[in-house]
Each structure stands twice: as structure tokens, then as C-alpha cells.
Amino acid sequence: MDKRHTREGVGREALRLRQQSEQAASRLPALLLNAERVASTVAQGVHGRRRVGQGETFWQFRQYEQGDSLQQLDWRQSAKSDRLYIREQEWEAAQSAWLWVDASASMDWRSLDTLPFKSERAKLLMMALAVLSIRAGERVALLGSNQSPRSGRGALMNLASQLSVVADRGLPPLRHLPRNAQLVFCSDFLMPYDDLEQRLRHFLASGLRGHLVQILDPAELALPYQGRTRFEGLEGEESWLLSRVEAVRPRYIERLKRLRESLVDFCAAAGWGYSLHVTERAPETTLLALHQALSANRRRFF
């Protein structure tokens, strides 16, 4: 391949990536600002440990992204195409948090206009966790985005942009991740438990540590409705008309209790963490517990 044409192709690719990043940054919602505000509140008195070093074990090549250091470029791999490639080491990938937010229709619900949608609170918690993780010298990535963990301001802007257009997906996507990477799954987990457990065991078998954050609306915990009530399915289910909703309340609460117990039992056996966040509560308490749990996991590895 002609070296001049190769360099020109690489330059065009770098310009294209920069333009895409700038366009995404110009469309960023208030999510990032709100996440930084929440993270700043939690960060008081919390100190991360920044680790240096590049490691020796090759993990993968990935495409260059705006904000990456030019020193990480692998020119030999880049010369094989018109794209720029970064060479990542196993050490870098292991010091990472992989975040997943459930984007299924059940998350776009709230019982009162004064409450946030479950999806909004989930994205806020994950963005704020990303802010704290990056401040502590870690790398973050959105599971299912096909992008590798990154650090720095550019990583936060990229994550906020990805969360604003995340595809409808009710289960965590399967992906090979380096051993000792950390996972955080944020969902209402109102799904068939057997399907969810199968996915979770895939990651557990790879030696990964994780944390489940269950997001629920207060009405989902108490089913406070009275009398004749119609429930509309959010994910293709048929509507359900009840003449006396209070008659099914005990069975509903018991079934939700069993689901939560299944999640807690799995996490206890796997050495994972579990948190319940109700959307009427402030996000800072859940975020602090989550950040401390992940920090404790990091210390176990080093």
C-alpha cells in the first residue's frame, strides 16, 4: 500500500472521528451535568486510588477515538487500513467498569409526574458512577456499545451520548470481557428470572465481579391502587382489568419479594453486590454504596 495514501486515509479517519465527537458533544443532554453534581456530593470524603502502568499482555486492537493518547496508536496495524487503531493491554482492560442500563419499555414508566422515570434515574446513577470511577483513575464503558473502556472527559461525553440513544434491550448483552473487569447492571429486573440468571452466570463463569442495581417505582413496591383498575402492558402484553386490585395485592407483593430474594441470593453466592433504589429517594445514597462496593472489589485484586 502506498504510504502517502495510507497517511491520507488515516488522517481522514481521524478528522471524521473528531467531527463525530464534536457533534455528539453539542447534543449532550443535561444528564452529564446532573451526574457530575450528584458525583460531587458523593465524592466528598471519598478518595480513589490511581494506578499507573501499561501491563505486558496484549488484549485487543480497537479503533482510535477522540480523546485517546496518540502514544497509544499502533501504526503497523493502522497502516493495514484507512483507520487508526489503539493497542490495548490486559492490565488496562482489567481496571475497568462495564455499565449496562436496561432500555426495555418497562423502564420508561413512573407512577406520578413528580417522580423520575426509572430509565432516567438509571442513566443518572450510571453516569454519576462513571464520573467517580474516572476521577479515581479507572476506565468505563457501556456494555453493548462495542467500544472499549476509556478514561478522561471525552469518555464521559461519549458515554452520555451513548446513553441518550441506547437501543431497546431487556437483557445484558453477552460479550467476552477480560478477567477481573467489573460489571454494573441497572434495571428493574422485571423479566423472566431464568433468562436473566443465564446471562449473569455467563459473566460469573468468566471470573467477573458485578453489582446489580434494581430500580423500582414506589408504586411497584406497594401496588397502592384501589378498586377497579386497568393495567396496560408496556412490552406487548395484553391489558388487564381488575375489579378490585386490592384483592391481588398480597400475591403481587409476595411475587415481587421472591424476585428480589432470588437476586439477593444469586449475588450473595457469587460474591456480587445488590442494591435496591426506589425512585422517590435521592440518588446519592445508592451511588455512595455502589461506589464503595466497587472500590472494595478493586482492592481485592491488588
Written account of the structure:
The protein is α/β, with parallel strands linked by helices and 302 residues long. 45% of the residues lie in helices and 16% in strands. It has 10 helices and 9 strands. A hairpin with an 8-residue loop joins strand 7 (229-231) and strand 8 (240-242). The longest helix has 24 residues, at 3-26. The radius of gyration is 21 Å and the shape is elongated. Residues 24-28, 47-56 and 90-94 have low confidence and may be disordered.
What is the fold's blueprint, element by element?
Layout: H1 3-26, H2 31-43, E1 58-63, H3 75-78, E2 85-89, H4 90-94, E3 96-101, H5 118-135, E4 139-142, H6 153-164, E5 182-187, H7 193-205, E6 209-216, H8 218-222, E7 229-231, E8 240-242, H9 249-270, E9 273-278, H10 283-301
Parallel strand pairs: 3-4, 3-5, 5-6, 6-9
Antiparallel strand pairs: 1-2, 7-8
Q: What would the keywords be for this entry?
A:
two-stranded antiparallel sheet, alpha/beta, 10 helices
How many individual helices? 10
Distance between the termini: 45 Å
Query: Strand-residue fraction?
Result: 15-25%
By helix and strand content, what is the structural category?
alpha/beta
Question: Could you name the ranges where pLDDT drops below 50 across 5 or more consecutive residues?
Answer: 24-28, 47-56, 90-94
The spatial strand order of the largest sheet comes to 4-3-5-6-9
Tally of extended strands? 9
> Which term fits the overall shape?
elongated
What is the typical, i.e. mean, pLDDT? 77
- Radius of gyration over all CA atoms, rounded: 21 Å
Tell me the helix content. 40-55%
Largest sheet: 5 strands, parallel
Oligomer: single chain
